[in-house]
């Protein structure tokens, strides 16, 4: 018990020290105004002495005046703390909170009139007063909290620019199911290259949960991976993650709901879906495609450069060998069938950019023209394990694209 009391007292002392530090960090004019405000409420409590008639105190009149003054000072400190917190909120949040609390109090007043109209034998007078006060506090609190939470959806430009904040620009990015399951978005976000607020719609969560509960083991694994990626994103304290419940019941397809949400929030859609990418651009919604980012970050390879690759399997054409770089880029080598399972030095002859990615064509270094420039760098593309399953899938996809 003593330890608990000492711990609570320590927390109280630490809170008082932090409050004093914040007071000292204020500007002198603001500090003077706040000190005057505390003194004024303390003086009002001392002069009016609202505790003079209470029967819960056994002290005399003078002591009750000092207690009232202390209560007034405490109320003033709470008001100042609330004001300091409100100064940090943006304008939309403040307007939403004020509007919500006002509507809540109006609703409480109307319901209180119904309660007051009841017969005194049905609802005693003390119960009426209690219900009216509780109802006003409840409706005002709920209205303020809901209004503050939904304040970001207010369009202040409709007021003629009176309350517009030109220095603040919303930076919303709506995440698609495909990019969440892919998982690379978490790596990009952790590096700090993905700023702004990441929006996760509730219908995307529902789709992820549906995939995670699928009877198909492959889909179930992908869905659970997506949920793990979401948890990883939310555990990153540097990211601003918001889950919105905005839905469009008239729209059935999830992709179209994403586009509508992007237009409503003036947000960017982050996806890996090629079709969603094109449709969003046609509808005037900006898109960030992780696949395009990955292709842009691949090292540039020019014809004539040399590289060292591991020939993995036979190519589509006669006597060709196929290799892969560490980033999954497919390398087709002429006359390399005999070197399957071995490492070979090749010279790049051409680079082909397809919708599925980049393809590199080359020939064996010993077959290269001896008069060609030879002082080029050698790149090793081998990696442990070769991630065989992933490479096989990428290889099949690229070859099908070229057919």
> How are strands sequenced across the largest beta sheet?
3-2-1-4-5
Number of E-type strands:
10
What is the CA-atom radius of gyration, in angstroms?
34 Å
Please work out how many helical segments DSSP would assign: 13
- Domain unit count: 3
Find the structural class using helix and strand composition. alpha/beta
Write down the overall mean pLDDT. 77
What's the SSE pattern?
A: HHHHHEHHEHHEHEHEHEEEEEH
Helix content estimate: 40-55%
Shape: elongated
What is the beta-strand fraction?
5-15%
Low-confidence parts? 370-395
The description of the largest β-sheet is: 5 strands, parallel
Span of the ends, CA to CA: 78 Å
Task: Briefly characterize the structure.
The chain is 52% helix and 15% strand.
Protein model, in words:
By secondary structure, the chain is an alpha/beta fold. The protein folds into 3 domains: 24-149, no CATH class; 172-295, Rossmann fold (3-Layer(aba) Sandwich); 299-402, Nucleic acid-binding proteins (OB fold (Dihydrolipoamide Acetyltransferase, E2P)), CATH 2.40.50.140. The protein is built from 13 helices and 10 strands. It has helices at residues 2-24, 28-48, 61-88, 91-116, 125-149, 177-182, 184-190, 202-212, 217-234, 254-265, 274-282, 290-296, 388-402, and strands spanning 172-175, 197-201, 240-244, 268-271, 287-289, 306-314, 321-324, 330-334, 343-354, 357-364. The strands form 2 sheets. It has a 5-stranded parallel beta sheet with strand order 3-2-1-4-5. Helix 2 packs antiparallel against helix 3 (61-88), helix 4 packs antiparallel against helix 5 (125-149) and helix 8 (202-212) crosses helix 9.
């Amino acid at each position: 018990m003593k330890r608990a009391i000492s711990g609570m007292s320590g927390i109280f002392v630490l809170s008082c020290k932090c409050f004093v530090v914040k007071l000292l960090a204020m500007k002198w004019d603001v500090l003077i105004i706040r000190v005057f405000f505390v003194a004024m409420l303390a003086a009002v409590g001392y002069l009016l002495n609202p505790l003079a008639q209470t029967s819960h105190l056994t002290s005399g009149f003078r002591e009750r005046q000092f207690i009232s003054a202390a209560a007034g000072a405490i109320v003033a400190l709470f008001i100042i703390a609330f004001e300091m917190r409100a100064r940090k909120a943006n304008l939309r949040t403040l307007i939403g909170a004020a509007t919500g609390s006002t509507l809540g109090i109006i609703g409480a007043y109307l319901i209180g009139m119904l309660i007051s109209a009841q017969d005194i034998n049905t609802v005693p007078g003390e119960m009426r007063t209690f219900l009216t006060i509780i109802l006003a506090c409840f409706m005002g609190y709920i209205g303020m909290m809901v209004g503050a939470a939904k304040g970001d959806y207010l369009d202040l430009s409709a007021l003629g620019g009176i309350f517009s904040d030109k220095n603040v620009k919303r930076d919303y990015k709506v995440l698609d199911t495909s990019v969440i399951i892919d998982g690379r978005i978490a790596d990009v976000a952790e590096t700090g290259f993905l700023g702004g607020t990441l929006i996760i719609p509730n219908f995307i969560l529902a789709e992820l949960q549906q995939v995670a509960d699928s009877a198909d083991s492959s889909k179930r694994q992908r869905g659970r991976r997506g949920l793990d990626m979401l948890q990883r994103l939310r555990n990153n304290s540097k990211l601003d993650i918001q889950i919105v419940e905005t839905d469009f019941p008239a729209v059935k397809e999830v992709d179209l709901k994403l586009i509508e949400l992007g237009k409503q929030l003036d947000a960017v859609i982050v996806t890996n879906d090629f079709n969603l990418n094109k449709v969003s651009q046609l509808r005037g919604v900006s898109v960030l495609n992780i696949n395009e980012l990955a292709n842009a970050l691949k090292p540039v390879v020019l014809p004539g450069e040399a590289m060292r690759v591991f020939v993995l399997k036979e190519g589509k054409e006669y006597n060709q060998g196929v290799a892969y770089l560490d980033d999954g880029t497919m390398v087709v080598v002429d006359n390399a069938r005999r070197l399957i399972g071995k490492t070979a030095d090749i010279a790049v002859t051409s680079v082909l950019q397809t919708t599925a990615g980049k393809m590199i064509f080359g020939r064996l270094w010993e077959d290269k023209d001896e008069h060609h420039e030879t002082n080029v760098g050698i790149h090793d593309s081998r990696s442990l394990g070769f991630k065989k399953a992933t490479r096989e899938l990428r290889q099949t996809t690229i070859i099908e694209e070229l057919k």
